[in-house]
Amino acid sequence: MDSNYIFQKVKEDNVKFIRLQFTDILGVLKAISITADQLQKALDGELMFDGSSIEGFVRIEESDMYLKPDPSTFLVLPWNSTTSKAKTARIICDIFDSNGEPFIGCPRFALSRAIKEAGEMGFNMQVGPEPEFFMFHLDENGIPSLQTNDKAGYFDLPPVDKGEEARRDMVEVLQSLGFEIEASHHEVAPGQHEIDFKYTDALRTADNIVTFRIAVRIVAQRHGLHATFMPKPIYGINGSGMHLHVSLFRGGENVFFDPDAADGLSDTCRYFIGGVMKHARAIAAITNPTVNSYKRLVPGYEAPVYIAWSHRNRSPLIRIPARRGIGTRIEIRNPDPSCNPYLGLAVILKAGLDGIRKRLAPPLPVEQNIYEMDLATRKQQGIESLPENLYEAIDELRRDEIIQEALGAHIYSRFVLAKMKEWESYSSRVYDWELAEYLEKF
Ligand code: ADP
Ligand code: MG
Ligand code: MG
Ligand code: MG
Ligand code: MG
User: Fold this and answer.
1) What mean pLDDT comes out for the span 172-197?
2) Domains of the chain: which residue ranges?
3) 399 is catalytic
4) pTM here?
5) Domain range 3-101, its CATH number among 3.40.228.10, 3.40.50.1360, 3.40.50.300, 3.10.20.70
6) Which residue among 154, 245, 320 is best mutated to probe the pocket of ligand 1, counting the most ligand atoms within 8 A of its Cβ?
7) Is 292 annotated in some ligand binding site?
8) What is the mean pLDDT of residues 402-424?
9) 3-state class of 110 per DSSP?
10) Which residues are in the GS beta-grasp domain (predicted)?
11) Cα 354 to ligand 5 centroid, rounded to whole Å
12) Architecture of the domain delimited by 113-432
């Protein structure tokens, strides 16, 4: 997509505003809106902004940042402004510092860096995500509640409720945004949905996840609903995950596939698994980055708890879907949709590359249900658990130099600071559960 095409589209579609988008360290989408007549300046990377107000970015004295749009991400947004027919477009940007260097706090750069490293080893990572989310009603004041009026479950068919209608609308909007939707269905829990889109290279997928989250929320809102990517909004039912299907390609070839291996998996694939398993506990800090994330990672709700891999069952961290040939891939099952997708994919890729470099063979796959094993059996088989909570995950991150390197020192330190603050705020409060448990007992 060159700038001629962009200017032509802007004219044709009556685009009046352009949103220059990026995410902060926590994966929150930020945007600066410009008018179409500033577009050339923006495309030349000459637009400056003050980064000091963005979470985890910089100190006041070094706050001048430049946004450099990635022209291939230009999109005219399908929703009209409510007041006029004018349209808004978006372009995703990389951030540069005042010296014209890639800004070390830009999550998209962290991913680009890992992608470049993979490229030097001859690999190109492909990722397909399965984001899940809940849709809830708004109360009479317009505040999201935990109410759904649907009692449907996995793959249930209508009587269509408001949620189904909204989801169909989401699929259409996403398609008009260029997404190739592979599946969309009701999930296990009431009010829970999943929309799967086609895999592509890691950077594009991370961009897609960010776009997906915003599109889903906007469409839900238009249906009078609140869509949330919070991992575990309701105790006692399934939480929302975002499984990541991952493979490495070299040219048009999937190098995870080996037709001569008994299980069809190459050594490269095996070492990649070994790397992800070795770093899994630190990766969790990034792919499961909230206090609430760890309330999803408990036994009994189809979310992984144990660091193991399997061809057959869905209880471990990594499952190997049955497809071989071009579709050979691993499914990493702990990530949730509250994560920063740029950082999440950066740490997974980096862990996989570490495995390949050091030839880290994974342990034997575990084909029985790990939830039914007792602690002694798990110990004997060397099966470790994911972190129990955010604090434990951050602690692991502090000990894992490879994962720190994937983030870069700047993002690493800001991330840990922000997360420790979050943990302290959470852990010092007194909750309903404690009052119910202790108030009368003691
Ligand atoms: P599940 O069985 O866990 O529901 P799906 O069959 O729905 O998984 O797989 C979904 C994801 O896997 C999709 O995003 C799809 O595009 C992706 N996928 C397919 N082939 C590959 C591949 N070679 N590399 C990465 N992802 C892939
Ligand atoms: Mg699925
Ligand atoms: Mg599926
Ligand atoms: Mg699912
Ligand atoms: Mg899955």
Assistant:
1) 93
2) 3-101, 113-432
3) no
4) 0.95
5) 3.10.20.70
6) 245
7) no
8) 96
9) helix
10) 13-100
11) 25
12) 2-Layer Sandwich (3.30)
